[in-house]
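A further point concerns the way the authors explain their paired sequence and structure data. Showing the layout once, in full, would remove most of the difficulty. For illustration, here is how one protein appears when written out as sequence plus structure tokens:
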Amino acid sequence: MAVLFTIGDKDVSVEQAMEFLGSVPLLQQLPAGLIKKIAHALKPMRFASGETLVREGEAGEGFYIVWKGEAEVAGVSNTLILKPGDYFGSVCPEHLQEIHKADVVAVDEVICLVLTHEHHALVSSDSIWTDNQRKDVATVERVLELDKLDVDLYRGLTAYPSETGRVFGGQLIGQALAAACKSVDPSLLVHSLHSNFLVAGDEALPIMYQVERVRDGHRFATRCVRAMQRGQEIFRLTASFQRLEKSLEHQRDMPEAPRPEDVLPREVLEQRYRVDARIPLRIKKKLAAAPHLQYPMEVRLCDPVDLVNPTQLEPRQRVWLKARQKLSDDQSLHCCVAAYASDSQFIGTALRPLRTSSGQRFRILSLDHSMWFHQPFRADEWLLFVMESPFAGNGRGFATGHMYTQSGELVISVAQEGVFGPYKRSKL
């Protein structure tokens, strides 16, 4: 165990300090890399009972986090007691000279971990994922970036508009999970999520994500995230987080599939469709006029559908996918990227047996979406998404899926239900 600092006769490791810092709401919103740097920069300070930690009118040492004991904030109408995990002081570089408005006095022996003024820049970051200002940030990482408005309140934008004007379901899942991840101890990783699509989102408007801290424990934590537009809840996600631990293991073997390098990219299949001789000219003109935006994920369909002459197929498919560029190392980001990608192609598996040469097109909307994260992985390396649909009926389709690494490790399981029906021509 690497000792970070010693308080009395107790050695404190980096892991112990990071676990403690992970309980501080202000710091949870920072990238994991920054929290580790903060842990190394902390200065322990001990105060005896009755001793003043900071005085009114003084700037103090910096940003104080109470590690042990209790302190009283003097001069407020109602007595305010600071306990372990509470914090005070200056956190912004531009506020280094800001003075305290009250005395803070130790009730009993108090130990504070102090981030001194010269390290104040560590408490701010331009990104919720990485502590470095990188110019080569992956496109999907930008899609999942959120503006932090307040503790547990974020704003997301739609970077890739669609033809429908509705927010892509994967964006809602990924961004909501990103907001949830930034409210827990970074040593806790998401192990499951359950979500419901309530109202179609408008991609022209920002989306507000409000996080509710349902439960905090040493091994598990639970968060509920509500996505809002125009004051209306459009999407809800509940996520559960767990501290990694060793245990006995087993898994289902990965099904056979062609190597990703032996499968054509989805863009090539789409381009072939655009120039197919069987496509009427009016449709070709419409396709040519449509804006082309590169999907942030690289997708390779092992079992593609003939879009020109669709036929009934088995309700299963295999898809290789990964982020187009290298991602930051934060494992929570990789989970969010997989969540973003999991809503693409998935529920369409339920429609494969329903396609006919008549050209009937279906409109499909997600109702709910659940995921279970089994072990760490990288979403910028190939994942095989194996999907099947055991049932479609009553206007709904149901699908289950599993994601494997190229080496055959089962890392994610997914389930989704959607509502479908035939496209109806506008009477206008």
About this structure: The mean pLDDT is 87. Helices lie at 14-21, 25-28, 32-41, 139-143, 169-181, 266-274, 281-289, 331-342. The first strand starts at residue 3 and ends at 7. The longest helix spans residues 169-181.
